[in-house]
Amino acid sequence: MSRTVKNYEIRQDLGEGAMGMVYYAIDLTLQREAALKSLRPDLAQQQKVIDRFRMEAQTQAKLNHQNIAHIYEYFQFGSEHFLAMEYINGKTLS
User: Fold this and answer.
1) Fewer CB within 10 Å, N- or C-terminus of the chain?
2) What span, in angstroms and rounded, lies between the C-alpha atoms of 50 and 44?
3) 8-16 and 3-5 as β-strands: parallel, antiparallel, unpaired?
């Protein structure tokens, strides 16, 4: 799977949650790994959900701790909404 969203090349699925998908991507501008979290298309039609997703990004962006992934940016690409964050390679918590 390879798809470019803004300046991120999505290379593979990492997981799926209640609100959407998380992808492994490469930031083509800065040449760094990233995790992209996307809002499910059906939820992206609801302004309350979009606001909650954006608030999640704003809240996480204020945090600075070694055990919390850093947010790079929140953006909209067409009708899709994304959080770009630090990619942390390792085992799942489950």
Assistant:
1) C
2) 6
3) antiparallel
Cβ-in-10-Å burial (0-12, 13-18, 19+) of 23 comes to buried
* Rounded Cα distance, 44 and 38, in Å: 9
Note the pLDDT tens digit of each residue in 70-93: 999 999 999 999 999 999 988 777
* Residue recorded with tokens 């919390």: 68
**Entry pTM:** 0.89
Yes or no: say if 38 and 53 are a contact pair by the CB < 8 Å rule. Answer: no
Neighbour-count burial for 48-58, b at 16+ CB within 10 Å, e otherwise: ebeeebeeebe
Does an H or E element contain 67, and which?
none
What phi and psi values does residue 61 have, to the nearest 5 degrees?
-65, -25
